[in-house]
Specification:
There is one protein chain. By secondary structure, this protein is mostly helical. The strands form 4 sheets. The protein has a two-stranded antiparallel sheet with strand order 1-8. It has a two-stranded parallel ribbon with strand order 2-7. Strands 3-4 form a two-stranded antiparallel ribbon. A hairpin with a 2-residue loop joins strand 5 and strand 6. The two termini are about 60 Å apart. The C terminus is likely disordered.
């Protein structure tokens, strides 16, 4: 019943609960049908026993209702949609088993007859689930979005007409829900790896370049909410005329069966059997009522009502369905220095690791000096450690505004240019280098090496350098606090978020050896902290200690390339950032953090554009990912390589006088 909460709850606990319930549902139903058929089959020759167990057969169609599941979840993951044929086979097998039980117990009694409408309701529910899975499978999802064959305009007729009327674009003052749905119908093709037309780009840009950041993110949120419903719920079935009809039939059959059961003679059945039957009937009715509440409270219904000027806000029930909550609005933070300093040790293993032998062996393993028994269990500990150091923070309004302004500036720089397509392609490929080449910074010659390496290496370099500056630049030389705490804090947020993607979501980033570089950098940082344990009392002191290291000679020349650590390269980068000058004058903290923030914005956008649509779609069921929102927002601003169809004939209406 709470499957829709996956849309905006990112924690692992709820995912585990849903996973167990999703996998266990089919197994429980199959076992119950087997037990029922076995029990009735053993007693089929004894008419008196068969009569007493008719009520058992009445339970069988309820298992089909159970297998149909709620409207809020059909697929746990994208892969489940591809297995729709297996679910269709399961429907046939389970229906066959339930019908076999029905025939074994058939005596023409009222309870036998009451099972028929429940069978119909169960088939509707299970059939809806199977059809929804089929509609969301990759092949059918793509096929459904293919346009009808288009011969183009009638050339001979158009040549005789001369008055053209421009096509209507998006309404700037339309409600967010209407704008979001209009864009969803076009940009959902991105989730099927289709390409879009230049006219789609122009229409989208005309809206997003003339709105504010809040409405822009709200529209993207609505679009991804619709996309989640299509991929993981029964939306493709429930929100159509046939879906409404089937919902009415299913509810009426279930309620009428419950009313009839109250009226028939039941004295020959045991109290336990009657209680179970009442629970099944009431549970089925509750699920149907909840499905109707979800239907009436959804964005789909609100959209329909808003078009008729009847958008009643009280249709939503805040306890069951939080209003307008379509994603978690959170981002994960993961920090390398925090991990290496052991600021959040796993408490349950604390006493064990304090034992002298275990402590020594553990540090040897972390430094790569031991391949013994700890290596075998290292993955379990590292998994627990990763989740221990992972934290969630709300995506700040400052960050959203900076992302919006960054993309708007890029989009405006390409609009109207003769080589706009080439510029958009260049903007997609920018990963920090375009920022460093800006006239107001002009520091590519000093820092360009840090963004021209592999992308995972650039993330690690800038993550460590950002931390070093964050904890040592809190005050300037005069003891006055930095006057741009927002840019400084935003840079730290994006830095920790990008490291989280590198370590825990590497499939969302370009291919590389990021995991290897991360673990080698951690090992080197741990060794450094161990060697200087007496002088380091906290993260700030540790960062200052790092910046005192002599890095005149490149670490590659000193250590070679066996270790993939980038720790001391990052220290070199931090020192270069501190020593930046323009016309002989050192940069102010404000300018430095503005540039660092711009670099992180460009890296974030590059990561979003390089991530595949399947990976973005997978994150919708995990509470949503900021990277996915940035990806779709980039597409709306035209900064995407999915616009490749020539504009061709304009969709203009011809007015003949």
């Amino acid at each position: 019943m709470l499957g829709n909460r996956r849309k905006y709850i990112p924690t692992n606990r709820i995912r585990v609960i849903f996973w167990l319930a999703y996998l266990g549902a089919d197994w429980v139903a199959a076992v119950c049908i087997g037990v029922l058929s076995n029990s009735l089959g053993d007693d089929c020759e004894n008419d008196s026993q068969k009569t007493k167990k008719i009520i058992w057969a009445f339970w069988a169609p309820f298992l089909l209702l159970h297998l149909g599941g709620p409207d809020t979840i059909t697929a746990y993951a994208m892969e489940d949609n591809e297995l729709w044929l297996r679910h269709l086979l399961g429907l046939l097998v389970q229906f066959g088993g339930a019908f076999y039980i029905f025939l074994l117990a058939w005596k023409g009694m009222p309870l036998n007859i009451l099972a028929i409408p429940v069978f119909v309701a169960g088939l509707i529910k299970y059939g809806e689930r199977t059809w929804a899975l089929r509609s969301a499978s990759s092949s059918h999802f793509r096929d459904d979005m293919l346009p009808r064959p288009d011969p183009g305009p009638n050339y001979a007729k158009i040549m005789g007409d001369y008055t053209l009327q421009s096509p209507r674009g998006l309404m700037f003052h339309a409600p967010v829900l209407e704008v979001g749905y209009a864009l969803f119908k076009t940009f959902k093709r991105l989730f099927a790896d289709f390409i879009l037309t230049f006219r789609d780009r122009e229409n989208s840009q005309s809206f997003f370049c003339n709105t504010d950041w809040k409405k822009a993110f709200d529209v993207v949120e609505v679009e991804l909410g619709f996309m989640y419903d299509v991929l993981y719920t029964k939306a493709s079935v429930s929100y159509c005329r046939w879906g409404h009809l089937l919902r009415a039939v299913s509810l009426s059959f279930t309620v009428s069966t419950f009313a009839a059961f109250l009226l028939i003679h039941k004295h020959e059945h045991s109290t336990i059997d009657l209680i179970i039957t009442f629970l099944l009937l009431v549970g089925a009715i509750v699920l149907e009522i909840y499905a109707i509440i979800v239907l009436l409270s959804s964005d789909w219904t609100m959209l329909c009502l808003s078009k008729h000027k009847k958008a009643f806000s009280y249709c939503r029930l805040p306890i069951l369905l939080p209003a307008e909550k379509r994603w978690s609005n959170s981002m994960v933070q993961y920090n390398l220095l925090s991990l290496c300093l052991k600021e959040k040790p796993i408490k349950r293993l604390g006493p064990l690791r304090k034992l002298p032998y275990v402590h020594e062996m553990w540090w040897k393993y972390r430094l790569g000096q031991d391949e013994g028994i700890l290596h075998r269990f290292s993955h379990i500990y590292e998994m627990l450690e990763e989740y221990s150091y992972k934290s969630y923070v709300t995506v700040s309004t400052d960050l959203k505004e900076l992302i919006f302004q960054h993309l708007k500036e890029k989009s405006n720089s390409a609009k109207g240019q003769s080589d706009a397509n080439a510029i958009y392609k260049q903007l997609c490929a920018g990963r920090g280098d375009l920022v460093l080449k800006k006239e107001k910074y002009n520091c590519h010659s000093d820092l360009g090496w840090s963004v021209e390496e592999d992308f995972d290496q650039s993330i690690l370099l800038w993550h460590i350098a950002t931390d070093l500056l964050y904890y040592t630049d809190e005050q300037d030389q005069n003891g006055i606090s930095v006057r741009t705490p927002d840019l400084r804090a935003t840079s730290k947020l994006v830095s920790d978020y990008m490291l989280y993607l590198l370590v825990m979501r590497p499939f969302m980033l370009p291919d590389g050896i990021g995991q290897m570089r991360f673990q080698d950098s951690c090992a080197e940082a741990i060794q450094f902290f161990q060697d200087n344990k007496a002088d380091i009392e906290g993260r700030t002191e540790g960062c200052r200690k790092f910046l005192r290291v002599n890095t005149e000679v490149s670490p590659l020349e000193v250590k070679g390339d066996k270790s993939k650590s980038v720790l001391f390269d990052a220290i070199r980068l931090a020192k270069s950032l501190k020593s930046l000058k323009t016309d002989g004058e050192h940069w102010s903290n404000e300018k430095r953090w503005e540039m660092i923030c711009d670099v992180w914005m460009e890296m974030l956008c590059y990561a979003a554009s390089q991530c595949g649509w399947k990976e973005h779609a997978q994150q919708l069921r995990r509470g949503g990912e900021l990277l996915t929102h940035v990806w779709l927002l980039m597409a709306h601003f035209g900064i995407s390589e999915h616009f490749k169809i020539s504009q061709g004939h304009a969709r203009s209406s011809v007015v003949v006088n």
